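In line with agreed milestones, the collection of sequences with tokenised folds has grown. One record among many is set out beneath this paragraph:
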Amino acid sequence: MKLLKHVSAICLCLATVNVSAAQKAVTDQGDVVILSDNGTWFYEQSNLANDNKIKTNTAVFNKPASANFILKSKTNNASVALNSKEWTFAKGDGVDTAVEYNLSLKKGDLYARLITERIKLAPENLSNIAFENAKKVAPDLKLINKEYRVVNGHQVIYMVMAGTTQGIKFNFLGYYFSDQSGSTQFVVFTSEDLVERYQTEISDILNGFSVQ
């Protein structure tokens, strides 16, 4: 059974982190914090103590040789190198303006979203907010893996989450990145039982992430 009819629900938990509507403030110690509309706050830059808890994967991650097309963001400097014979893509549906592109594997039940914003946010905070947002749609969401990687010369946070939505167990695998041009979430998702089957396709599309 195709999972396409469930994608609309999954899209909700891969939405913008909503930091665009948040406000910045400066503490009496001179630290910049971001105030969310739900009353929570966090430092604009990650606390080094928290960063040190994330392991580093020293493997080499580069775009696949099969990538023949570069999908470029118009919001920030993010880009994705992909194989146009295997993947199709379309602009976001306008429901969430931060979702710039939706991607689908042509022959399979594998999907991806490129979520881009202009606001700069430490990747650790970006990944934490993404996790909390996803829990709103998948209350049983669990963190499977979280690590630093260097992908095509750029440090990102790689995060794997697993949760149940509409009775289906999904896995979400993604890269979280930020620089002066803004913040990016590039997330691939499919049902839990299909992750091993699509392991090559997942690695290839994720490792196509780069910066223009």
About this structure: Confidence is low (pLDDT under 50) at residues 46-51. The helical segments are 4-13, 48-51, 123-135, 199-206.
